[in-house]
Amino acid sequence: MQEMMEVFLARYNYWVVIFLMMIGLYAMIAKNNLVKKIIGMNIFQTAIILFYVSIATKRDASIPIIGHGHDGHHAILVADYMNPLPHVLMLTAIVVSVATLGVALALAIKAYQQHDTLEEDEIIEQLKVEYLNQP
Amino acid sequence: MKKFGLACILLFGAVLLYGTMDFPVYGDPHSPASQHVSDYYIEKTIEDTAVPNIVTAVLADYRGYDTLFETAVILTAGFACFFLLRRFRRPPPKFRLYRHLDTGITLIFEEGAKEPVDSDEFMRIDSQWVPYDLIIQKAAGLVVPFLQLFALYVVAHGHHSPGGGFQGGVIFGATIILIAISNDLRSTSRRISESISAKMASTGVLIYAGTGTLCLLLGANFLDYGVLSQLINVSPIMARSHGILLVEIGVGIAVSAVMIWIYYNLASAGRHDEGL
């Protein structure tokens, strides 16, 4: 039991991320409302961002901005600065997630204009009726 | 469906949790993600580019292609919202609401009635009930200049502190959206029209790609800013720093304009007459 707790505490960031991922994926699969699905997608994206940022951390390290940048040559220890690469990747991913959110909401508005509802089962019902009634 | 979904999610979570047993522990300096190229970035960024903020240097210089096409993705999202939602021909509304500002009376103008022009006395309001919120309007108007100044600072100071084109651009776009929320969409789009925001978005991407092409014309690789030292009288390393700034400005313009553009289209469902 003690050992299990140590394993858990040493890697608790993954547990948080996976919990968030499960929430987002569940909302995307099981929720009926399109806006709730979009919110689920956003939670999922947030989990990915958190995952990347959490694997960038190093114990006792600072943010990846070099202090005393310009005055002469200081020795730069790699262990003193966090891994900058995941931060860069997530910086762009955040903005792209905003952009995909915008497009998803635009599609939801379009669906609402066509079907007067955001509930998925009602939209599918309307599409079925349309399909059966076509000549 | 819900139970099946829940079962799938639990299975998915269990598999992932089992997988994390082999992952490096939290804060491990020797984790695989922190090996290889990341060490090079941390050690060589100052020598290569004279930019203390490693994230900015990696974003705009080492991984310049990635950021260029991320900016293109954002521009595409703006265009996608535009083409999905925008409606230019629309039936005129059945009635319009005007507020007489001195008395606070709301007037309904039926279709065909002669309408007052937007003046100091009459203000057109949205057809959903909109309270007259002077405090919110004035408070937002008071904060916006400082927020915009901060956005410009974040863009310009991205070399030395956390910041850069994406963050500053989003802050700048958010200030315009704040004006649009606290006042109304019509008065905001009179200040920054849709066509201006679309042109600005394209211009931002053009600045980025143009900087890369300039390097190409000067005889170096695409987005290899060191060669810009031929144009500005600095060392090639400082030229990299300035090239990064140029690119960040392009990103900031593109991101802020796309935020505004997407907001206009989403808030009014493409009609641009009234929204939120």
| Cα gyration radius of chain A (Å) | 23 Å
Mean pLDDT of chain B comes to: 85
Put simply, the count of helices of chain B is 9
| Distance, first to last CA of chain A | 67 Å
Please report the total strand number of chain A as a whole number: 0
Question: Uncertain segments of chain A of ≥5 residues (pLDDT<50)?
Answer: none
Oligomer: heterodimer
Q: How much β-strand is present in the residues of chain B? A: 5-15%
- Alpha-beta content class of chain A: mainly alpha
Total strand count of chain B, please? 3
In spatial order, strands of the major sheet of chain B run 2-1-3
> What composes the largest sheet of chain A?
none
The CATH topology of chain A turns out to be Helix Hairpins
The portion of residues assigned to helices of chain B is: 55-70%
Helix content of chain A: over 70%
**Distance between termini of chain B?**
35 Å
Fold and architecture overview:
The complex is a heterodimer of chains A (135) and B (276). Chain A has 135 residues and is mainly α. Chain A has one domain (2-60, 76-133): Helix Hairpins. Chain A contains five helices and no strands. In chain A, α2 (12-30) runs antiparallel to α3 (34-55) and α3 packs antiparallel against α4. Chain B is mainly α and 276 residues long. Chain B has a domain at 53-89 and 133-267. Chain B has a three-stranded antiparallel sheet with strand order 2-1-3, with no helix packed on it. In chain B, α2 (37-49) crosses α3 (54-62), α4 packs antiparallel against α8 (194-217) and α8 runs antiparallel to α9. The radius of gyration of chain B is 25 Å and the shape is globular. The two termini of chain B are 35 Å apart. The model of chain B has no long low-confidence stretch (mean pLDDT 85). At the A-B interface, α2 and α4 of A face α1, α2, α3, α4 and α6 of B.
